[in-house]
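Posting for a labmate who doesn't have an account.
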Amino acid sequence: MKKRTSLLILSSAIILMACDSRSYEEISDNTPITAPVKYTADVKPIVDNSCISCHSAGSFKPLVTYDQVKNNIDGILDRIQRPNGDPGKMPQGGSLSASQINIFIKWKADELNEN
């Protein structure tokens, strides 16, 4: 009986560990980025999809070119990492995923190491 109970507990534990209700995106958000992050391939698509509608060429803080994004990276990081409910959080009306924020952080680190 003791062996059967132990086996049942072990089986239950294995099943519970295998069941993860998080989505792929939530799990991958915790994965560190090790490959170099490139502006055109990695950063620009996020800017184009999440920032450019408000930060276009005619706006107060345009984020259209590589130099504009690079020169404003500290402000971008400040704004995208603010807590929900903060009026200065960007993008307005939503948040970037943790993996998107990590792309900006890694890109800044990669850019500083290149120069």
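Reply:
Got it, the structure tokens are right above this. Residues 2-18 form the longest helix (17 residues).
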